[in-house]
Fold this sequence. Notes:
Elements: E1 3-8, H1 10-18, E2 24-26, H2 32-40, E3 45-51, H3 52-55, H4 60-68, E4 73-77, H5 81-92
Parallel strand pairs: 1-2, 1-3, 3-4
Amino acid sequence: MMQIAAVGSDAFIIGFRLAGIDNVFSATVDNIESTLKSVMSDQRFGIIVVHNDEVRHISGATKDMMLQSIKPVLIQIGGEEGELRRKVKATIGVDLYKTS
């Protein structure tokens, strides 16, 4: 069974930990790229969540690798709710915000 992981600052990952996601990886600006690559190479993870602010600090080659990755799927969040809604729907094929 594939697992979900969250990578980012302590402030970002605490919400995932509180939601019951055990696979959270604290990263700073200095080690975000190496931490993200390490988590991406772990076959346990099917979805990796990372904040847009952290993605700004990684190289173009790693960003390309993230965009092209099918397994795991990388979801960048942060910013407006509409953007998150679109990304979740595109990733899992279901609009979680739809009420009827």
